[in-house]
Amino acid sequence: MSPHPAQHPERTGTPGPDACSGFGRRAFVGVLGAAALGTLASAAHASPEPVRAGRGGADLRPVFLGTYGNGIITCAYDTTTGALTRQGAFTAVTDPSFLAVAPGGKVLYALDNGGRQGAVRAFAIGTGGTLSPLGPAQSTGGANVTHLSVHPNGRHLLSANYGGGSVAAHTLTGDGGVGARTGFVQHTGSGPDPSRQEGPHAHQILTDPKGAHVFAVDLGTDKVYTYRLDTVSGALRPVSEARSVPGAGPRHMVFHPTAPYAYVANELNSTISVHAYDTATGVLTRGQSLPTVPAGLGRAVRNYPAEVTVSADGRFVYLSNRGHESVARFSVTGGGAELRLLDTVPSGGSWPRHLSLSPSGALLFTANQYGNTVAAFTVNRDSGALTPSGRPFATSSLGCVLPI
Question: CB neighbours (10 Å) of residue 25?
């Protein structure tokens, strides 16, 4: 692959110095309490306790940064301003560029790309955000694992192998550790872009809001695959396939929280597509597609959409633009069936690979892979508008920012 990031944005970033500022200025005590981990079923009813800061009475909560080259960095974020303070790091893991948290927030899951095949790992989250490994890393069966998610049942972990073009499922043990691989599906096919779509490249795996079906978004084959997870055997059973516009390169998808629609960020043609979702059959039907940057601006620089997320009330969709270096805000209309681009704001750094909303929905964070920054934005409850909050937080080359 060419090292030029504008041509091949899946190249991992060069790790930068970990210059997180503010370390030690505010005590980060009892992020999740010191209670021992119970079963995942009981954890699902728990929630992380806020951390009281002495200065100004602000609440602090944990946020984990998945990096290229510097492990998993633990920070605290101010729930009002989004300001981050570094707490520590777990470095004995290779390129944990995507992270997920178990129901209840007691266990963190991470990628580990230290071997020829990708792997996934689990960590108990302790006082101050410290991470303790829960068993060894488990192979995903394919090269360059790039995404993982926890099934809503709390008993299975799902992963997508970008390099291998495959998806996998693992059981989760009683304490949240990763058990045996129970499901594996190899995608086949290609797309019209010879440099990015020479074969399958599974980029994301997720579950619909009710846990009925599992979806794999494959950039290489221009498809979104629907599976059903057999919750007894842990196998992934193919259900259907939804085709994208040839050469679109679907990367990540998010479901509307209540309406039967999903929104797909297309990396290679800089669009976002709306898909109607048949909740009974799992079938996705592609509808509207529109550019992710304002008209005319996309010609000035090649743009690669990355992450997409939706507000809890389903009124706004947010998408990160790499190249245009922005966050796009869309209004959701037509009961979820249509999107309208409202505006874009600078992402606070170069190559915003990931973005996420805080659990309260009051903040949005961007993980700027090449800029080595996390930027925080306050979210207007009525309009969904984003306002930068403070200076971007200097850190390592990032793949993920996960506030909990």
Answer: 10
Q: DSSP for 305-355?
A: EEEEEE-TTSSEEEEEEETTTEEEEEEEEGGGTEEEEEEEEE-SSS-EEEE
- pLDDT tens-digit series, residues 258-286: 999 999 999 999 999 999 999 999 999 99
- Alpha carbons 75 and 402: distance in angstroms, whole number: 10
List the one residue out of 105, 215, 104, 200 whose CA is nearest residue 158. Answer: 215
- Helix, strand, coil share of the chain (percent; to 5): 5, 45, 50
CA gap 245, 4 in Å, rounded = 25
Token pair 């800029």 in the structure block, residue: 371
The three-state secondary structure class of 296 is coil
Which is more confident, 253 or 130? 253
Mean pLDDT of 182-198: 98
Q: What is the largest CA-CA distance in the chain?
A: 57
The whole-chain average pLDDT of the chain stands at: 88
Closest by Cα among 267, 178, 257, 177 to 222? 267
Provide the b/e sequence for 64-96 (b: ≥16 CB within 10 Å): bbbbbbbbbbbbbbbbbebbbbbbbbbeebbbb
Residue 234 φ/ψ region, left for φ over 0, alpha for ψ in the -120 to 50 degree band, beta for the rest: left
C-alpha distances out from residue 303 to 210, 245, 292, Å: 33, 17, 9
Of 145, 141, 53, nearest in space to 100 by CA: 145
At 304, phi and psi to the nearest 5? Answer: -130, 100
